[in-house]
Amino acid sequence: MLTILFDGVAYGMLLFVLAVGLAVTMGLMNFINLAHGAFAMAGGYITVLLMQRADVPFLLCLPIAFVGTALLGAVLERTLYRPMYGKPHLDQVLFSIGLTFMAVAAMDYFVGSTQQLVQLPDWLRGRTEIGEGAWTLGMGHYRIFIIVVCAALTVGLQYALTRTRFGSRLRAAVDDQRVAAGLGINVNVIFLATFAVGSGLAGLGGALGAEVLGLDPTFPLKFMIYFLIVVAVGGTSSITGPLLAALLLGVADMAGKYYVPKLGAFIVYSVMIAILIWRPHGLFVRRGGRVS
Fold it and tell me: How far apart are CA 20 and CA 155, in angstroms?
């Protein structure tokens, strides 16, 4: 039981890093980017290809995946996404879904449809067990690594959004772009940096999750619903909500697959529906703030 809980927490932390960029773009930038999973897939493929073809160490691939997808996000934000900011949400959804299918087709054409394998370093392949009997806690070293990295990212992101000048400028730009521009804030640069960081976090999550979740060209389609559940259940007005939602989803999904594998997905969606009936705008909604 403890092992299932531990694996669920690791899975939830990974889902949070994958989905937090979507929460930021929807909650702070008011843009529905359903192509978010394509950036995660890009980060995963950057890691896999660097390791397979250039023999780059796994730990070095992680920051490269973040920077590479962040740069890709910045380019696409400047060229494709920015003209869509003022469009209706339906237009944004159709646009981003179109990008997703284009990314899936492009990756299938250039890399192939086979699932990619990640060769982890030896020190991340082991497993440590504590306790005995039913209360044995089995901790995979790679899952410990995921929890530590994702926890550090969560703390850093929360600090950046709430305690730094960039975070205050971002909130000001979201609340009223015209007033923010009048105060000397370059709204376009703020949104560009925010979108790039969100894309980079997705790419980093894809790099971390390639070994756990599997990686193939259909990755954005398979996990799109999970990203949306994290954002919908957690809300988009804070980081705390998506974090708690991702942990709940991870534990529920892992427990469902272990105890009732035939009803695993049913349990996840039942929990989601129950929470949304109780809190239609998500677990955490900032009073006075706007709801996307």
Answer: 13
Looking at residue 134, its pLDDT comes to 65
By C-alpha distance, which of 191, 235, 181 is closest to 85? 191
Q: Is the dihedral of CA 203, 207, 208, 213 positive or negative?
A: positive
Number of domains in the chain: 1
Q: Distance between CA 243 and CA 55 in Å, rounded?
A: 34
Instruction: Assess if residue 234 is contained within a domain.
Output: no
Which structural domain, as residue segments, surrounds residue 115? 2-218
Whole-prediction pTM: 0.89
The whole-chain average pLDDT of the chain stands at 86
222-250: pLDDT as tens digits? 988 888 888 888 877 678 888 998 998 88
Q: Are 161 and 239 in contact (CB under 8 A)?
A: yes
Beta bridge pairs of residue 116 = 215
pLDDT digits (tens, 9 = 90+) for 99-139: 999 999 999 999 999 998 888 888 888 888 887 766 778 88
Find, among 221, 204, 203, 223, the residue nearest to 213 by Cα. 223
Is the residue at 168 inside a domain?
yes
Alpha helix (H) ranges present in the chain?
Answer: 2-27, 36-53, 58-76, 89-110, 141-163, 165-175, 177-182, 187-213, 219-234, 240-259, 264-278
In a domain, 284, yes or no: no
Predicted local distance difference test score (pLDDT) of residue 274: 85
Q: Is 149 exposed, middle or buried (0-12, 13-18, 19+ CB in 10 A)?
A: middle
Residues 6 or more apart in contact with residue 49 via CB below 8 angstroms: 111
pLDDT at 291: 38
**Residue 248 domain-assigned?**
no
